[in-house]
Amino acid sequence: SPAGSVAQVPVAEGKSVQQTVELLTRKLEVLGAEKQGTFCVDCETYHTAASTIGSQGQTGKLMYVMHNSEYPLSCFALFESGPCLVADANFDILMVKLKGFFQNAKANKIESRGTRYQYCDFLVKVGTVTMGPSARGISVEVEYCPCVIANDCWNLLMEFMQSFMGSHTPGIPSVFSTKHDSIYSPADTMGQYMELFNKIRKQQQVPVAGIR
Known about the structure:
CATH architecture of the largest domain: 2-Layer Sandwich
Distance between the termini: 34 Å
Order of helices and strands: EHEEEEHEEEEHHH
Shape: globular
Strand content: 25-35%
Largest sheet: 9 strands, antiparallel
């Protein structure tokens, strides 16, 4: 999987989420990026069912079950501080069967969807992050397609992101520093989306106008 960065872009002052997304995509189009279809990343939260937690006052664990349209045959299960399990799409059926152990916090479903852009060797996905009916934020994922070693291409990625994200260009993702010279995988991207979604959930800001 190409190494990439997933970051949140704040809503421009006086603009809605949709207008900010349009500003970003316009900048990409001015650079010469071309639309290449759409994408969607979604995330459902499961918490350990009360019946499985002992009486020692343990807290339930959260597990995030995620999908990414770039990997239609896979399902990703991530724990907040731990491993990422990559399973096939039947994993969703298994989660239904495990409802005695894991319960779906349906109100917490969050997703990002938007347009994919190709620019030279970069793939850019600008997404509107929604929870329920309301738009909560903006995600930007940038992949440098020729490179699978994260640290080898960070400077290139950053330089390109600055060209259309300006001062909102993110710092190096934590996954890059833990990977060092190992191969970047789809699970690394999903971990970045999980962090971004959790950050947006915690912001609990007043919902901005829903998507028209």
